[in-house]
Amino acid sequence: MATTSANKAAKEEGSTRSGTSRNPLLSLSYLTIVGLWGASQVVLIPYVVHLLLLVSAILYAASHSSLILREEADKSEGGGSEHSGVETLRKEDAYQFPIVGSASLFSLYLAFKYLDKDLVNLLIGAYFAVVGSFALTMTIAPAVEKVAPKFLSREARWEYKRAHSLPEWMLGPSPFELLIHVNGYEIVSFLISAVFCVYYFQTKAWYLNNVLGICFCLQGIERFSLGTYKIAAILLTGLFFYDIFWVFGTEVMVTVAKNLDGPIKILFPRSLERNEDGKIDLSLLGLGDIVLPGFFLAMLLRFDAHNAGVPVTYTDFHASFPKPYFHTTMVAYIFGLGCTMFVMIYFNAAQPALLYLVPACLGSSFLCAVVRGEVKELLEYSEEEEFDEEGEGETTKSDEAKKDK
User: Which of 14, 16, 175, 266 fits 308 for a cystine, CB–CB 3.0-4.6 Å?
Assistant: First the structure.
């Protein structure tokens, strides 16, 4: 990627300062998430304020945690024997995502329309209870590690090999190999998460739903890369029309959101008093309206880190460095979400949030690049992995451009 001498100087300066300057907003974001969750159960927080604060904190925390993807990609480029584990979206996937999403959404709609609603929710609830156990485990494991006895930090390894006669595309070449690395504190975290999810499955309480929803957001944004700005634009543009069609054009999206009793949404109480049905009045925001723009915000933060020359190390997600693209787009996202809430309240009708969020995110980020004179750099930035024909190594397109320079 081409860089000016000023950018190079900024990178060198960022490299020396990133390890010492800390980012207090990151700690504040985690405290905000925990504080809002606890306070909302005893104090009525205006749901618009609650929604904007909680979503902003989730996106800020998750985006900064995603800086770990830079280190994992760097390890794979270094020729390590193990794959980095970074999930990167391909251009073909970006084109197909709205189609696959539409098929899944319509299938759920048909299931609720023609099958027993309680049975559908039972199956979906069981699935999310299992998946939620792993998401919650990954979220609380770092905290458990800090308070757990030292002997729980010891790593145990289990290796399993078994010959099979199935096609290679199903289980890989024979024999099938499974290698598990696990620490004691991770086992403790999983047991805590499993008990929590069993209790959630039995009660379906809204505040337990929010815990799993928040964990899905944090873990999803932290571990997934959109690859390039162009792929991100393709994905968000497709989802822009997807959201408009299924909300304004049909009753499908609203029907599924209201009937699906699972942590695919975050709930915000409008009142702490129960209505005639014995339930609390709740507003909701789908996880897709947080996670999908969150992928984009996280990529822009990694682009900021790349431009600032932040060293590719695990602890740097706590570092403070210039973040013009991330901050600009974050403010635009909050503004877009506020517009969504205003229109929803004014017209008293469900709104496709991506109708407002996609133009806000894409428009603000591109405008920032225009103002800074970095349109080419933004469009060329890539986190895609490219494997050579023999599969001996892997690099990113942006690193190849640097080598050419």
Answer: 14
Cβ count within 10 A of residue 261? 16
Question: What confidence tens digit (pLDDT) does each residue in 266-294 have?
Answer: 999 988 888 777 788 888 899 999 999 99
Distance of CA 371 to the CA centre of its chain: 28
pTM of the model: 0.83
Q: Tell me which amino acid residue 130 is.
A: V
96-131: per-residue pLDDT in tens?
999 999 999 999 999 999 999 889 999 998 899 899
359-385: b (≥16 Cβ within 10 Å) or e: ebbbebbbebbeeeebeebbebbbbbb
- Give catalytic residue positions: 243, 289
Tell which residue, 138, 136, 122, has the closest CA to residue 262: 122
For residue 30, give the nearest of 59, 61, 62 by alpha carbon: 61
Buried b / exposed e over 83-102, threshold 16 CB at 10 Å, is: ebebebbeeeebeebbeebe
- The pLDDT score that the predictor gives to residue 308 is 86
- Residue 336 and residue 344: Cα distance in Å, rounded? 12
